[in-house]
Design goal:
Layout lengths: L29 E5 L5 E4 L2 E4 L3 E6 L4 E11 L2 E5 L4 E5 L7
Antiparallel strand pairs: 1-2, 2-3, 4-5, 5-6, 6-7
Length: 96
């Protein structure tokens, strides 16, 4: 079947407000860092490299947050959600 006619809605479509989720420090645990080539870190029991994504499950609203690892350095990592940067240090919870 082929569509022959499309019409716009007469009601104004309002996009939903962005959902703000706060990452708690205990949600990001860095247990190991390797600054060789490639740079790797163990975050939340998962080996991950620079440029890769970490999915963090949040108890609020039962959603997940996707964070990109932007930098792995000696003793710390940086992650971003595209709007803000989170720094986490090895053996310590992350600082929002």
């Amino acid at each position: 079947m082929q569509t022959k006619h499309i019409s716009a809605s007469r009601e104004e479509v309002v996009p939903p407000q962005p959902l703000m989720i706060q990452i708690r420090p205990e949600q990001i645990i860095v247990s190991a860092i390797s600054i060789g080539h490639p740079r790797l870190a163990v975050i939340n029991d998962r080996q991950i490299g620079e440029g890769e994504y970490l999915v963090v499950r949040t108890p609020a609203a039962h959603v997940t947050v996707r964070l990109r690892v932007t930098q792995i350095a000696d003793g710390r990592i940086e992650l971003t959600d595209g709007m803000q940067t989170i720094t986490a240090r090895i053996g310590l919870p992350a600082k929002p």
